[in-house]
Fold this protein.
Amino acid sequence: MKFNKNQVKNATIAVGGMVVGAIASRIGAGAIPLKNETLKHGLLMVAPLLLAGAVKNKMVQNVALGASATQAGYLIKAVAGKSIEGNETAQKALGCPGNEPIIIYANEANGLGYYSHREYDEYELLPEHREFLAGGEDRETFAAV
């Protein structure tokens, strides 16, 4: 299959519109004071579909489709709720890993104040020393984040 310049341009514009729609729908969902998540995401999924069907402008349709697709994912998460807990595939597919973040506390035992990658599995939880370090093996290449 050969692509011409116009096809690539149109596809790029379409994806850009869908990304804008996804971003706008997340902002809109955050601004709407509905406590019922299923209703909120359901409305934000259906309204853009109606808009996409009512207008002829391709960019507006792409923005609306991006918004609708994004809210459809959130709607599925809201409806599924706790039923997907423990189902790693469903959680990944819906963008909700379900894992608590891993916090690695400072390692005072090795005299360095941080864990080398070799010590990762043996860390002790020290709540008074919360620090996330990223970088190399030696102290100079680590950066507190």
